[in-house]
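G., the chain you wanted modeled:
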Amino acid sequence: MEPQNDELLVQKLCEAFKEARNNGKMHVDLDEFHKQHSEFEPNATLEVLKKEVQKGIIEIDNKIIRPTPLGIERCKLDKSFYS
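Predicted structure as tokens:
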């Protein structure tokens, strides 16, 4: 996947976090994220997500994607994301 597509996918993830927060959730479902962004090849999507985990931006546990404090800052999410 090209770096610009990587960044686009991260932007989509940030948008998904904001939408989840608006719906009272503090995470994004991995399978749902894949479905919503089917224009990206699933294996490439997983590679980008793994990179974000390594950077400390997100955590993935039981197919749930959560932003870390660094991810909250990167995505410009409200500090109340975890409250």
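The longest strand covers residues 58-61.

Shout if anything looks off.
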